[in-house]
Amino acid sequence: MSSPRRPSPQVARRRRLVAAILGVLLLALVIWGVRGLMEAFSDDDAEGSPDQGQQQDEDIPAPEEGEDGAQPEGDAAQEPAEVPEGHCSPDDVLVSASTHAESYAADEAVRLIMQVRNVSGSECTIEVGTAEQTWSISRDGTEVFTTEQCDIDGESMERDFAAGETVRADLNWPRSDSSGDCGTPADLPGGEYQLTVGVSGAASQPHTFTLEGNEPE
Questions:
Q1: Tally of domains within the chain
Q2: Which burial class, exposed, middle or buried, applies to 186 when counting CB atoms under 10 A from its CB (0-12, 13-18, 19+)?
Q3: Contact (CB, 8 A) for 110 and 172
Q4: Residue 160: inside a domain, yes or no?
Q5: Model confidence over 34-85: pLDDT tens digits?
Q6: What is the rounded distance in angstroms from the CA atom of residue 82 to the CA atom of residue 123?
Q7: Given the DSSP bridges, would you call strands 142-146 and 110-118 parallel, antiparallel or unpaired?
Q8: Residue 194 placed within a domain
């Protein structure tokens, strides 16, 4: 077997030159690729910086109401009462006030009327006992009578209301001033009066009626 023929010195020199050029080109490509990769990361970081700053701002909790030292006032300071399961919430109850007449003579007692309606779409229980009822009468923004000032033996009575069901309660008011005596008629001036009623946390809109005053002798 004959041995392989060795290339001439000129061919060997050309091969080494080509190999050197390929090596330089390969090194340049590697450097270009690394440099491009680094620039891509830099661009991503630059574009992401505003988003990162915005995210930090969103993560900072906003001050809660009353956190500046001021105490919440009115209803904001009160936690809503928890409604027992199966009971109507105040939003499910529509309470309305009325009287059996629009005007009353000077010596006539007033029959007050409270109507309670379940306005939810399902049956629920409402506490309608006298312990939960309030009846208030005012004139020109000044309270004249309220059952909260009277010595009433309040009783509890839970009642199941079907959806849309309405019940009624009546109370005779002897035209008394509850700051004095709830059962004795007072010398009240004639004019318009407003009745407001409530039960189980739900209150009515005012209902206006008229009382005639005593004629001077």
A1: 2
A2: middle
A3: yes
A4: yes
A5: 344 333 333 344 444 334 333 332 322 222 323 333 444 544 445 556 777 8
A6: 18
A7: unpaired
A8: yes
